[in-house]
Amino acid sequence: MSTEESLPPSEFQQKLWPPELLYWRRMGSRELSDHVEATPPENRLVLVTWGVLEAHGPYLALGLDAMMAQVATDRVAFDLHKKHGIRPIIFNSFADIGTYSVTKDIPGSVAIEDWEQFNASQTSPMLEIWHAVIGRLKREGFERFFLINGDGGNWMNYMARPNTPDFISLKQVLEQAHGVHFAGSNWDQEGGVAWKHGESHSHAFVKWVCDFAPDFERFASLRHGIRPAPEEELHALDGTNFVDTVDGRRISNWPKILAHPELRGVAEFSLEKYRELLYEADGKTPRASGGIQEDYEAKIQHLTANVLKFVHETGTE
């Protein structure tokens, strides 16, 4: 594992900003045009990262949803380029602008719309942003967009509302309005264990990606501003459990969560589980395998498979 202090500045910069990764907001205008010209239409792909600003407990970042999703997006983009010859562009320019959910009254939350406010038949600020972005990117030569979403409120508001049979999703709206292909993944809920809000797995992931992960993920945590919660402060969260099992599904009990404002949105936290995900039996040595790293890899493999399936299904037209 490299340490930042041991690297010469040029190598540090290359690890912090790998040349394999293309971000729309960092590319030059000529660079973008060259990419479009050099890339066959069937291989032109934009990965859109999306989250929201809201509390994830007292200590984790308000923008954590997009930050974690961006680490996953970077890894998928890197693997697509190295292993499959597909070099996507990452679009993260409105990554923190999303949907208010039940955390709306916890300090720090900033969003545009309430959960379930989205209605495909009505205009809204968020929908206008999506139309403006997708319409412009299509003009630039892109027709395939894959959303890597980090916030459950966004997903339930815009992409999948199972209890509303006639729901028209953002995917349907954008495909019909712009003649593009659009798909997505709620990345931290698919593959491995579904992470609940501000719970043991997300706290463990943040600690792992900042301190113990391979270089690629650890530098991604620097790139996107992730920092772990102080472990000595986590005792205050220990024993929190406001997750109910309904028909085999784990459901956060938000009325109970919000009745404890000091928790600032934590649904479930066990210090024992947190340590089990990170450390060997001695409680000090980072795990060599299993734990949170294994769960993250399961999510990455699932996400990559979904993106490849989307590319293959839409790239032959």
Question: Which key phrases capture this entry?
Answer:
alpha/beta, Rossmann fold, five-stranded parallel sheet, Creatininase/forma_Hydrolase
Structural commentary:
This protein has about 325 residues and is α/β, with parallel strands linked by helices. It has one domain (about 5-315): Rossmann fold (3-Layer(aba) Sandwich), CATH 3.40.50. It has helices at about 10-15, 30-40, 65-85, 125-140, 150-160, 170-180, 200-210, 215-225, 255-260, 270-280, 290-315; strands at about 20-25, 45-50, 90, 100, 115, 145-150, 180-185, 240, 245, 250, 270. The radius of gyration is 20 Å and the shape is globular. It starts with 8 loop residues before the first helix and ends with a helix.
The number of helical elements comes to 11
In angstroms, what separates the terminal alpha carbons? 44 Å
How does the helix and strand content classify structurally? alpha/beta
What's the mean pLDDT score? 92
